[in-house]
Design goal:
- The model has no long low-confidence stretch (mean pLDDT 82).
- The protein is elongated, with a radius of gyration of 17 Å.
- It has 1 helix and 5 strands; from the N terminus they run ββαβββ.
Length: 67
């Protein structure tokens, strides 16, 4: 899943989630008209908690990954 973040001056908007970065990009095209000239944006990939575990060699279970 992906999240679109738009920073415009002191305002930050988080829009989404989206299934693909292409969907977020399409929405960004529509939203840029309402943003200022110096607005910045990012598309973030969201990670599920299951992706933040790693398999320990020699053990059958997983350990949380320190972030």
């Amino acid at each position: 899943m992906y999240l679109l973040t738009i920073r415009d001056g002191l305002q930050t908007r988080h829009i989404g989630p989206y299934a693909s970065p292409r969907q977020a990009s399409d929405d960004l095209d529509k939203l840029q008209a309402s943003c200022g000239d110096k607005a910045t944006w990012q598309i973030h990939r969201l990670e599920s908690p299951a992706e933040l575990h790693t398999r320990i060699p020699g053990r059958g279970d997983t350990e949380p990954v320190a972030v």
